[in-house]
Specification:
mainly alpha, 0% strand
Length: 138
């Protein structure tokens, strides 16, 4: 009886062990499936992040190139502005010199006109004196 009872107990134990083994394998497979699914999602997320990072790098490079281009244009415009200011200052200095010369010419012309007016006045006085003398002789 004892051997039969042990066989029966052993059969129950083996059945229980088989069920536990089957349950453990099912749990393991389910857990592995979830982990594989998570790993796949994580891998997709990593790929998406890498693509996004690459796109960001490309955009950054494009912005840096654009910024350098604009910086060059800005420097060029600054040089042009400086050159124009220098030309303007040179022209203004030239015009100030011209104005000074014209003012000097105007003063000289006024002085000459005053001198000619005095000479004319003197000649007119001489003419009037001569006219009076001629009238006296007549």
């Amino acid at each position: 009886d004892l051997a039969a009872a042990l066989r029966e107990l052993r059969a129950q134990y083996e059945a229980l062990a088989a069920r536990n083994l089957q349950a453990a394998e099912d749990w393991y497979r389910a857990r592995c499936a979830r982990l594989h699914e998570r790993a796949a999602r994580s891998q997709e997320a990593v790929h998406a992040s890498r693509r996004e990072a690459g796109e960001c790098r490309r955009q950054l490079q494009a912005r840096l190139v654009e910024m350098e281009s604009l910086r060059g244009a800005h420097q060029s415009l600054e040089r042009q502005l400086q050159e124009m200011e220098e030309r303007h200052n040179a022209e203004a200095a030239g015009l100030q010199d011209t104005i000074g010369q014209l003012e000097d010419d105007l003063r000289n012309t006024k002085n000459e006109m005053a001198q000619h007016l005095r000479e004319y006045q003197d000649l007119l006085n001489v003419k009037m004196a001569l006219d009076i003398e001629i009238a006296a002789y007549r």
